[in-house]
Amino acid sequence: MLVLYSDFGIDDPYLGQMKAALLRHGQREVPMIDLLHRVPDFDARAGAHLLAALQTSFAAGSVFLAVVDPGVGSDRPAVVVEADEKWYVGPDNGLLAVLAARAQALRTWRITWRPDGLSTSFHGRDLFAPIAARIAAGVWPAEALAASAGLDHRMAADDLAEVIYIDHYGNAFTGLRAANITREARLAVGRAQIPAARVFAAVPCGQAFWYENSVGLVEIAVNRGSAAADLRLAVGSPVALVT
Amino acid sequence: MLVLYSDFGIDDPYLGQMKAALLRHGQREVPMIDLLHRVPDFDARAGAHLLAALQTSFAAGSVFLAVVDPGVGSDRPAVVVEADEKWYVGPDNGLLAVLAARAQALRTWRITWRPDGLSTSFHGRDLFAPIAARIAAGVWPAEALAASAGLDHRMAADDLAEVIYIDHYGNAFTGLRAANITREARLAVGRAQIPAARVFAAVPCGQAFWYENSVGLVEIAVNRGSAAADLRLAVGSPVALVT
Amino acid sequence: MLVLYSDFGIDDPYLGQMKAALLRHGQREVPMIDLLHRVPDFDARAGAHLLAALQTSFAAGSVFLAVVDPGVGSDRPAVVVEADEKWYVGPDNGLLAVLAARAQALRTWRITWRPDGLSTSFHGRDLFAPIAARIAAGVWPAEALAASAGLDHRMAADDLAEVIYIDHYGNAFTGLRAANITREARLAVGRAQIPAARVFAAVPCGQAFWYENSVGLVEIAVNRGSAAADLRLAVGSPVALVT
């Protein structure tokens, strides 16, 4: 499975061009999944924590084409990462750093190949897609890669006590993994202290709560309402556990 | 054909995860269509009238994965509906009730299977997708289902004299089917009374009219403008026929 | 490759219905690409310049289903265009006129076929999709077409010195092709005069610049910011070269 992850949005002509490039470079047999194209714009840090959570539900052998790349055209390296039998193709700007830090087994390569006609602003289409297409098709692009001793841009494996994503309902994902947090804990958000609930339906309409969302993160929600609007949350808003 | 219908939006990581689940559960050969993922949030009633209209243009044998599920995690049943040789998989909360009420031939089953690791908030991915994938692949999941005597949550077959959807142009779909309405009728919307027109191009720019839209519903539109903005329409706004 | 291009948006049920029609009419083997469905609403002129730029990166043999069609239901012709070994199916309202004017080799046909049950408002689904599906599948629909002596609605091959598209980052595409413009030129936009830069990363955060974007157009951007917001740009805003 080839999994696409970016901040390209889905309204703009970028995703279609990248998919056309994938098809041109041999990616026709493997199913493609649009996982998320609304990573907060330019935000490799939020994107790194979100990708680390989202990738857990994909099987070994999956290939991720992950592009949040505000430094495109600068000298930030382009890389391939193998982490716990999944492959990731993207920029070395932090986006892949959290999953790399948490991996049991890690190998990294720099993409040394530069295609003719490489644009200065769209390496997702011109550089990363051809490499990802070949890996997804089972053809290792050895001549395009040079093994490296890890990523340049490293991040800790720790959780991030911030809002990292807000969905269209207004639910706010944090970078905290729920597995290690007691359900007795309250979550401090601004002046509010929010209790846990197991499901939306367990809470009166309009009330805020936190819960373990479907990708294992602590999420702030309001039953049939918008937590982002009610609590004035944005990507980057700090949260704290109160136990 | 497997047809996806939800209020998940297309900006968020939900749709991609649900499609990955469909692929994991054997849905690789049948074409998948994203019919609509912007059903008004949490609104199973508007969603029910819209789905009843939209499904008419799909052929017998189509399988619909339909998820508008604000009660996820509560005890609302999960069901499979066969209505006039089309299949529907989703929650029993009204979403499937209008098409069921209008069907000539109806059979219903409860989904009794519960997968390991079922999340509390995302049955679209964990429960409904695996069932829909198998039905679309031609494998009836008999051991996962129990025949039932109809839906718990029933609705009338009647039309709904309200706005049920607003598209990005600002056109407002109502829950009224146009087939039985004379073109002489005017539509009362707030203080306005709106005449019918056959096509956009028959009306001066900026003027409001109603017409039979491409799925057979009465739709309020403004030629090259936004009916929703001009007439202050929202999902749920009442309309009335004046004959 | 079958390439879809429209102002249907991706939030609404139009695209799914059009794809279902493509599948019903035999388009199952050829990969489909959603290039753009956010052409500025009703704006065949901006859409024409954008399509002329975007199509350059697709290979000979590609088939474009291009629908921006505010005159649907009027007597505007429906056409097939072959321009430099690519095919285009859509309305003859200007949308295809810029690429036609720039083509080395051009052939045009009118679609004379009218299907049973043709809606008045959705020829993308009912008329254009069946024709495009057959062409993409390699079956020329000769009996549905009549050769014509060019398009009715013609436009010049010249560039357009206006903003023609704004992406979700706030970058503004113009209708100027960058290939013939010196990098010394400044771009006058309102009262501002904007210099060129090669890449985003070459410019301080918050500063406006123009550059040759990934489809060869002059684009106005702000590094990690929104040019549209900062410079109050909208589709149609005039720009001028200052050399």
TrEMBL record, chains A, B, C:
Domain S-adenosyl-l-methionine hydroxide adenosyltransferase C-terminal: 161-239
Sorted UniProt keywords: S-adenosyl-L-methionine
Residue ranges occupied by any S-adenosyl-l-methionine hydroxide adenosyltransferase N-terminal domain in the UniProt entry: 3-142
The organism's place on the tree of life at top rank: Bacteria
UniProt cross-references to PANTHER family, sorted A to Z: CHLORINASE MJ1651
Family membership: Belongs to the SAM hydrolase / SAM-dependent halogenase family.
Protein name, as recorded: SAM-dependent chlorinase/fluorinase
Species this chain originates from: Candidatus Accumulibacter affinis
